[in-house]
Here is the input.
Amino acid sequence: MVPLLASSCGGSTPPKATGPSHRVAGPGFRFAVPDGWTTTQTGFAVVARQPGEQEGPLVSATAYRLTKPYSAALFTRAARELDGVAAKLARASGGTVTESLTTTVDGQKIRAYRFTAHPAGKPSTDDRIGFVLEGRHEYQLLCSVPAGAGDPDGACALLFGSFAAPLE
Here is the structure.
């Protein structure tokens, strides 16, 4: 089974982010976030969020090592598995997948998903999850915003438009 990841903002070309941004780096990857956002690195993940917003928008990227190498020839098979993983993640959060698509991130064909999460005791969020697979690496991209907020400062567009890996 493949671990959790985040999704893209659209089908072919993600929307452009507005406003200034800066790059953040994690183990083997990098991406851009809006200026002023705070970042935390834990283990193999980098999480960025608006300062002072514990329940507000956040973006993250997490790196995993695959037991078997991935190649583009495996995309169709991997996509079916990822579709099931995304459905389980959505159900676990009290939601259902509302969009599944194939898009491009960092020149790679990826699977991306949207769903609204309803975590117990917390406000609902609109979540986008995307899975970037390359060689023995899996990168999970996540963008989570308050339900109905859209992508007000372009953080989701920045994540999916600027993500680059592997960096070795």
Notes: The chain has two helices and eight strands. Residues 1-17 have pLDDT under 50 and may be disordered.
